[in-house]
Amino acid sequence: MKSKKKFIIWSVVVALAISLIIWIAWANRALTVTQITVRSEMLPEQFSNMRIAHLSDLHNTQFGQDNEELIEIIREQKPDIIVITGDLVDSRNTDIDVAVSFAEKAVEIAPVYYVTGNHESRIDEFPDLEERLLAAGVTVLRDSSVQLEKGGAHINIVGIDDPDFSFYPFSQEAQHTAGKLERLCDEESFTILLSHRPELFEVYSQYGVDLALSGHAHGGQFRLPVIGGVIAPDQGLFPKYDSGLYTSGRTNMYVSRGLGNSIFPFRVNNRPEIVMIELKAE
Question: What CATH number is associated with residue 158?
Answer without folding.
Answer: 3.60.21.10
